[in-house]
Amino acid sequence: MDLLTQHSPLWLLGLALSLLATGLVAGVLAGLLGVGGGIVIVPVLFHLFTLLDIDPAVRMHLAVGTSLASIIPTSLMSTQAHRRRGSLDPQLIRRLLPGVIVGIVIGAVMSRYLRGPALSAVFGVVALLVAVQMAFKREGSAWADGLPGPRGTATIGGIIGCLSILMGIGGGTLGVPTLANLRVPMHTAVGTGALLGTVISIPGALALIVNGLDVQGLPPLSLGYVNLLGVALIVPATMVSTRWGAALAHSINAKRLRQVFAAFLGLTAARMLAGLL
Q: What digits encode the pLDDT tens for the residues 208-246?
């Protein structure tokens, strides 16, 4: 309880309201655009923690860990929904999972030793690439027809697993566009992305908890690099607002909205990278 007494009630109220707003924004955008919540939660949390003057040494790690823990429930629910609809291809999953698991282990180890600026650089660069892909991808274009051989597939899975841990995102943000560009049917790509989100988020959150134990400068109610108050407020807000976003998606120009989000993500990534200079 000593951590709570270090901050005024107004500061704690501001933290709680900001975390709740983060979940609402992430859910609406996820429902509107079909993107994973983590790609929204991490940059919003990072800037929130900056405004709240949380120790710069832990800001990015805290944003990544809290994001990974927050997307566990939604990824589990999404996986079950896609399984019931037959959107999971067992053969595709068997080919990808070994590489993804190796990537998760590598990412978990790297996150322990990388400093905050390095994590920000990883997020910034990859988010910038995702933004460009979202903004300029042409309908029907693809990199190849189907997954490559065993080594190539293992490499793809490893990159998705490792980068997702380091960025605090599930499997959808990187997995879905990658599989879609390999001409995997979109419903299968989305279902696979949901499953990868479950596989990635649970060990990822546990790793960030362990890595952050006994670290100084964390905000109140943090378990390692996972802020429990953040998880408690972001999860229900995201679950509710995702439905709002999905409903709005039918009345808004999806292509234009995707371009606007790509611009937001690109500017956020560029700002994070510029802050490192």
A: 999 999 898 898 889 999 999 899 999 999 888 877 876
pLDDT in tens, 82-121: 788 787 888 899 999 999 999 999 999 999 999 989 999 9
Q: How many domains does the chain have?
A: 1
Expressed as residue numbers, the domain containing 96 is: 2-274
- Give the predicted TM-score (pTM) of the model: 0.87
Express each pLDDT in 138-159 by its tens digit.
Answer: 766 777 778 889 999 999 999 9
| 25 Cα distance to chain centroid | 14
CA 187 to chain centre: 20
Judge contact between 74 and 246, C-beta under 8 A: no
Per DSSP, the residues of the chain read -HHHHTS-HHHHHHHHHHHHHHHHHHHHHHHHH---THHHHHHHHHHHHHHTT--HHHHHHHHHHHHHHHHHHHHHHHHHHHHHTT---HHHHHHHHHHHHHHHHHHHHHHHHS-HHHHHHHHHHHHHHHHHHHHHPPTT--S-SS---HHHHHHHHHHHHHHHHHHT--SHHHHHHHHHTTT--HHHHHHHHHHHHHHHHHHHHHHHHHHHTT-SSPPTTEETTEEHHHHHHHHHHHHHHHHHHHHHGGGS-HHHHHHHHHHHHHHHHHHHHHTT-
Residue 59 has pLDDT above 50, yes or no: yes
